[in-house]
Structures are given as C-alpha cells and as structure tokens.
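Q: What does the predicted 3D structure of Retron-type RNA-directed DNA polymerase look like?
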Amino acid sequence: MLEIKYPQLRFVRYADDAIIHCNNQAGAEKVLKAIKQRMSECGLEVNGKKGKIAYCKNANRKGTYKVVKFDFLGFTFQPRPTSTRTGQMFLGFDCAISTKSKKKITEVFRKSNFQRWTGSDITRIAEEFNSKIQGWINYYGKFRKFSLMKIFRIFHCRLITWAIYRYKRFKGSFRKAMRWIYELARSQPNLFVHWQHGFQGA
C-alpha cells in the first residue's frame, strides 16, 4: 500500500523490518505518521526503538540531526571514515556488525564455557566452532570485516585460558599460553576458520 501511495520512495524490507528512504525531514515525518496510522488500523503498532527517523550523514549531507545511525538486520548503519581506491579519506555512511550482534556472538562463547573443556584438545574446540565462525564471517564480514576483530580477541582470550587449564607446563602463565596459541596459528593456519581470514593475532 505504501509503495503505491509513495512511488517516489525506496523501500527495503525483510520480514517485518523495513527501511524507507526519504528526501527530507518533513517527508520522513509524513511517511512515519502514515505507517503508524495504517498499523493502528490493523491492530498493530510501530516498535518504539525501531520506528525512528535517522539522518544519513556523510560528506555530501552535512546537516546536524540528533539521530544519525540505525540498526538493520544485525548491522549498524552510521557515518564512518571511508577511503577511496586511491586512499583519500572522506566521511561515508556505511554499515558494520552491530554491538547487539557482537554481544549475541560472544554470548555463544560464554554459554559454551569452552575454556573449561580440559578434557578436550584444541581440535575438538575447532570442530565445535568452525561452522559457526564461518557463518558469522560469511554474513557480517561482507562489510568492514575488520570490525569482527573484537569478537575474535574475546575468543582468543578464552582459548588462552583453556590452554592454561589444560596444560600444566604453562604454570598459570597467560603470556606463555598466548605465545603457544600464536605459534599454533602460524604453524596450523587452517585449524580455525578465522585464522584463515587473517585474525590469527586477534
């Protein structure tokens, strides 16, 4: 219905989430009001956190607005430093994995408690997580893959802790266990999927 009423606008939809591109603040407010009215007629309401107007600020759009970012499909869209092919920097409006998505992934690590798997070797840990890691990289790594670095640092810290619990020769030394993991990443770069993608020193 909205596409018919506002054919000049661009709609991006996935399930019950949508982004509507408007040309100005007044137009955005008008469309949001129409959406709320239509949903009310259907006995529904717009999500208070998601139903907002955001200004896509970049080098060409320099206005001052309170909201300049939003989350969609696990990504955060916001103004970010961007470089051209020649290396020149400018302010773009781009996406990267959202903070909420990062927390969901690290929660998987926490719930598994794999740093306490003292009866398992590192191959077992790789078998448990590689398919998940591949999926995360395939999806979230499409845009600004380096933004996944923080996630894999957390994974590595837990992996180092596992090594300390598993092997007495480290004598509780985080540094010794970290060095061992680092050397393992160099000698067996295919052991973990994220090592194959350059996150060996995460």
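A (community wiki): The structure tokens above were generated from the sequence. The beta strands are 10-14, 17-21, 70-72, 75-83, 89-97. The first helix runs from residue 2 to 5.
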